[in-house]
């Protein structure tokens, strides 16, 4: 047995896994003398969403990421106490139970808990079990937990029915503005110039051809969000209106979740509500994040904000603390 494996055997090891549609990330870690969680190894693999990849491929991707993380830590054969697996596409309890059973059968941890990938957003508590989390990236979705530990999920309907406040919606409005200006032969505003430069097009016909040839239209359109937000920050008026609309949509999502989770305890209505933010819009733009925070303040929504920079580490911490199981209770 190697020195690292011998050291690992003297303390409990935990697994934190964050699985999405295109990537699965795993950390192996342990608690230090002060209780702080330390990452000992990292591993990654392909997507593990069972709805899109299938249950067999999802299990294989998770096992591969775990094995790589344990090898990176230098103790491939050492047992782990518990693993928390936050996997996209597992809102259905049937998927969670089957995935947990398959992972337990593989003996990668003494206990394997599978939860929806939104759950780590609720991991930061400030004296109360009530919490809210918002993801704003390509899409948008929110999750809340009430004082009784029940979960509510709002949004996440995708580009056809929802995704308000998302990168896709920001990009869509900017692209629509550009396409309309080019089609009508109207005066080209500065945002249209920015969008055309980003896409390397000059005419409406070229925009049509670009969309028709791209297999991931949603991703392409969402990729415009960054330059639109930068334009808004520099004072471009059309970009500013688009970003303001997105901010209002996300603030409305927070307010609707707040009403859902606080309806059982009116005394908490004026206490700062723990709010965790994740996704590229919040993580990559200080301007967007600060503008969102100001909008919440203007609306009288009192929150204590945390940015979730690393969902995989959040899963590792939750595993070590023994929080969350696959048996989530949803608000009706």
From TrEMBL:
ATPase BadF/BadG/BcrA/BcrD type domain ranges (all copies)? 15-285
Q: Which InterPro entries match?
A: ATPase_BadF (IPR002731), ATPase_NBD (IPR043129), Euk-type_GlcNAc_Kinase (IPR052519)
Lineage of origin = Bacteria, Pseudomonadati, Planctomycetota, Planctomycetia, Pirellulales
Recorded hits in Pfam families, A to Z, give: BcrAD_BadFG
**Protein name stated in the entry:** ATPase BadF/BadG/BcrA/BcrD type domain-containing protein
**CDD domains from the UniProt entry:** ASKHA_NBD_eukNAGK-like
